[in-house]
Amino acid sequence: MLNILYFASVRERLGRSAEELALPVGVRDVAGLIRHLGQRGGAWEDLAGIRNLRCAVNQQMVPLDSPLADGDEVAFFPPVTGG
């Protein structure tokens, strides 16, 4: 199982803050997970379109090509701006 967390505007777009999902067959990295989630349609398709989407696996910020394993925690964050 993956424990997936959604933060800030990503959470608002999707209408949920977390979910558990069995690691889908063929999904090997964060980018593959995003593509898999996008197949749900609607707001989920938008997840892949968020420019500079930030991701963490097991509380470490990672690039989209980072591998996933059963039991991982994956978090998605919108781009961060400051001022």
TrEMBL record:
Keyword match NAD: no
Record's keyword terms, sorted: Nucleotide-binding
One cellular component term from this protein's GO annotations in UniProt: molybdopterin adenylyltransferase complex
SUPFAM superfamilies: MoaD/ThiS (SSF54285)
Record flagged with keyword Protein biosynthesis: no
Source taxon at top rank: Bacteria
Molecular-function GO term, any one: nucleotide binding
InterPro entries: Beta-grasp_dom_sf, MOCS2A, Mopterin_synth/thiamin_S_b, ThiS/MoaD-like
Pfam families per UniProt: ThiS
One annotated GO biological process: Mo-molybdopterin cofactor biosynthetic process
Chain segments annotated as coiled-coil in the UniProt record: none
Family the entry assigns: Belongs to the MoaD family.
Protein name listed in UniProt: Molybdopterin synthase sulfur carrier subunit
